[in-house]
Amino acid sequence: MVSSRLLLSSSLALLQATPSSAFATSPLSSSRVGSVERRQEVGPLFAEDNNPFGFVQGLFSGGTAVAQPKTPAIPDVVVDSDYTLAAVFASIGLSSFFLGHDIFTSVFGGLFVLLATLFAVQASRIRFVFDGEAFELKNASGDDDQLSDSGENIVVGGANRWKYETFVNYEFFPKGSPVPILVYFKETQTVKEDGSNDGQIHFFPAIANCKQLEEQFALRGCAKIRD
User: Fold this and answer.
1) At 38, is the pLDDT very low, low, confident or very high (cuts 50, 70, 90)?
2) Is the dihedral of CA 42, 46, 48, 50 positive or negative?
3) Lowest-confidence range among 10-14, 139-143, 175-179, 218-222?
4) DSSP class of 194
5) Cis ω for the linkage preceding 174 (within 30 of 0)
6) What is the CB neighbour count within 10 angstroms for residue 67?
7) Hey, which residues does 203 pair with through a beta bridge?
8) Quick count: other Cβ atoms within 10 Å of Cβ 47?
9) How buried is 125 (Cβ within 10 angstroms: 0-12 exposed, 13-18 middle, 19+ buried)?
10) 62: Cα separation from own chain's centroid
């Protein structure tokens, strides 16, 4: 009888223990569920295309790059020759020579004719050139105006080429005249005999189109003293 009670008690104890051990949630299963939940929470951080590095690319993206248009370079310009000064001097000279009634007037007229001839020759053989760096005097030869180096400046020495940033001033004389006679500019590139370079003055007859010269001086940024 006693043994039957012991057997029954053992069976009941086994039945009570079996449900808790058979259906209890294991630590491993709980860990997996938690992992799935965390994945669901993290999931929205990724891109919609399932690229795990999508958000990183967004951090370093600078937007769409737009190429800036290049500033067009100013083309080289050869200023047109101008024979107006030669024509004016020739008219004055011939009028004085033929209409004069004394030797002085005739000599005066002859001098103007000689100057007119000189200006015409110079206008035919000298070209004023503006390139990317400097203003330069060149010699023209042949029917196609082949340009060549004009050599050293016969007055102050050095090449007949001056960089735009060395200009201090430029002007046309007489000021405001429809027919300028002289073109003037001052630059600091030429070193004087005493070693100073506080500014060298240049004059040349207006044997080129002065309107084009003035436009190019301004376009190239040459300094000018304003009245």
Assistant:
1) very low
2) negative
3) 10-14
4) T
5) yes
6) 5
7) 184
8) 14
9) middle
10) 26
